[in-house]
Every structure is written in structure tokens, then in C-alpha cells.
Amino acid sequence: MSQKCARSVISYHNTNYKYTSVQYKDQNGTGKMHGSQRVIMFCLLTTVLPTTLIVSSLYLRNIRYADVMYKISDSDVIQIHKGQSSIFCEKHSLKMNNTFNAFQMKGRPELSSKRRHIKLKKSMTLPDDTLEYWGFFLFAGATVDLKACSRYEGSKILVVKGEKILDTCGILDGRKYKKDPSLIDNPDQLSVTLESPKGNNEQTTEISLDHKKKRDKEHSKEQLFRNLVEDTMNIHFNKTVHKRSVGNPPLHNPNTVLDTGVYHGGNANNTPNITEDASISSFENNLHECYHENILMNNFFPYSKECNSTSYLENTTTLKVEHKVLTDGYYYYIFYSDNDMVKNDIHVIFDIYKPTFQYTNMSESKVCLNSTECEFDISMFSDELVIVEVPTTGGFKNDNSFILTSVCRPRTTVYIFFPVSVLLLILLFAFL
């Protein structure tokens, strides 16, 4: 027989029946657990496992699949992953303080041949050796028509291809610059039209950007074009951590940005007046060294005392740039002034024509248009995600940003497993 357990056969007799039972006994002759074993099992079934189940359900509901807030702006198109699950979420609710369109679908939508027009009007005042830039994410097939003028001489435009966060090589904060790796690999074309303020002496130059021109170190008004080529690049998104507002969840960057709006930066507002004369601008040289192999264009543009607002550009062309995009990427239009006598006023109008996404063969339950609140049902084990796009108003791009709140409505049939499991564990202990 086993050392731990002995078997005994007990027979019962009476005149008509004979009963035989087989019992397993421990060494002490009892069929029950020791006191220490019962304590361990009691702690395990009534404390450890139930606590684990309860904490897991609270973590999933309040942290893993909690409400998520996104900060987005005009013309953004995002695909939402964070805080959503086809197992733990029964519905996906969206709410924003502006109208938006939402689509529930598998994968990402295809680009269509249809393009949308976005107009952007900007004015800036630049002291000497300062810059201000405007950046866009552009798909292949997009075009950018730009018109610009300046109040005084010395204004220049520099067009470069960069990443989502433009590397300024420390130029803006006075650190030593470092060169960015080349993002260009295939030829691109820019068409540049220069025109005098009176409308005479128009000069149009179309450049096939696979050769170099010498840099203008004496600041003469000749055109400067470099080895201007492009490469298809993967989109990288750096997650930015925002400070949490009291009582509100933190803001998040979207997991997948399919299309995005304007990136703006510069140091014009952080630089004091500069009065010293400099015949050679180390600031401009540093710009060239920083973006050397990623420059698409560098050009002076004519000035006029009549250039006092973007309205001047509606009927007059002083500088016109037509940029045909051949590969997806982030493109930055950098404006700076080489005039150490006065601050220069620069006015710009962007007309951007971007390919749009197409959403075809979709049922009404998968589409929500021009609304501030949307809700979609989520099938169990579905791989569908929601895509949100913010339309521009009348084609004009504004600088407003909006808060989109994404909510996972819990799937009750899944979450009820946790409290039911706790009850089953307690009942199981009662029979041990």
C-alpha cells in the first residue's frame, strides 16, 4: 500500500443485503486535508485568484482600454488602434468638438484620383538671420502652388524634404549644427516663376533636379538649386507625451496617421533685433550645411513696398513655385531674411492639391459623415478599425486643433466572466 494513503474495505451485512465500500485514508486514518493544506487552498481560492481576476478586469477596463483623447487638426486622417479591442469592446464611440467623418473598415483605404484643394494664407515678420517654416505631408501626385512676396529685399525661400519632426541642426537654439542624412534619391521637378512687382520681365524656370548649382555666398539674386532628388520614405511617428490636465485623461498621438496637416515652427519670435552688419551670413551657410543633400530649392524673391498683406498676391505674382510631388514624404517651406537693416514682412499663399482616400462598397453602418459623435458595433475577433478624417472648411486651412475622444464600450459577456469566476472559486472551496 501507499505510504500516504491506505485502502480499506468495509462490509456491511444484514439478512438481505451486503454492502461493500472502498475508502482511501491518509496515514492518520482520515479522508480530509490537513489543516495547513486547507489554509493554503483557502488563501488560493478565496484571496489570490479572485484578487487577480478582479484586478485584471479593472486594469483592462480602466487602463488598457480606457478612453483615449487625441489632438488633431484640419485635414488630418488617422486610424485608431489605441484603447480598442474586438474581444473586450462591444462598440467604438467617438466624440469631437468639431464635425468629422468616420469609417470602419479593414486595412487602410486606397488613394483615389480625386484631389482636394487646401488654401493656406500666412504672413510673417522676420528679423535678420531668423526663419519660419511651414511643413506638409504630401502623397505622390500632390501639387503645391506657392505665391510669395516681401516688403524689403533679402527674403529667400528654402524647400527641403525632411522627417515628421524637422531637424534644424541646432540652428534655432544656437547649438552646433549636424547634417541630416539624405532623404532624396529620385529626380523631382519644380517650376519657379519670378516676376517683377509691376508684372514685367517674367522669368520661368523648370528644373529637373538631378544636378547642382553654385551657392550664392555674396547674396546676389541668382537662383540656387542643388542636387534635388527624392526617395520614398516610411512614415515615422514619434509619440509625444503631453501634460495631463487635471481631471482629464492624457492626450495621445494617433497610432497611425494616414494624412496630416501643417507643421509650423521657427525662431522669429524668440530672437532680438539684430543691428550689426554682416557681409556673409553664417546663418545661411549653416542652413545649407544642415540640409545640403535634401534641398529641393533655394531662391530669392522680388520685393515691393506694396507687399503688405496676402491680398497683394491675389492679383500680382512676384514669386510662384509649382511643386509636383513624386514620392510620399514631409516637405518643408522655409522662409528667412538676409537683411540686417530691418525686419522683413513676408506674405505667402499656399494652394495645395492632395490626393484623397476613397471609401467604396461600405454599408451605412460602417460610415458616419459630418457629425460630432459616431458609434460603431464591433464584431468578436474582427480586424476592422475606425478611420477618422477632419475636413477643411471651404477649402481654407485653419490653425485650430480639436480634441477627439475615443471610447471602448465594454463587452458585458466577456467582463462578466471575471465575477462569475470568483464565485465559482468560492463554491469550489466549499466542497473541498
From TrEMBL:
Sequence ranges assigned to domain E3 ubiquitin-protein ligase APD1-4 middle in this UniProt record: 320-429
Keyword Cell wall biogenesis/degradation among record annotations: no
Compositionally biased residues, Polar residues: 191-207
Pfam families from the UniProt entry: APD1-4_M (PF16041), APD1-4_N (PF16040)
Transmembrane intervals: 39-60, 414-431
E3 ubiquitin-protein ligase APD1-4 N-terminal domain mapped to chain residues: 97-165
Region of interest (Disordered), ranges: 191-220
Signal peptide span: none
Top-level taxon in the UniProt lineage: Eukaryota
Keyword terms, alphabetized: Membrane, Transmembrane, Transmembrane helix
Name this protein carries in UniProt: E3 ubiquitin-protein ligase APD1-4 middle domain-containing protein
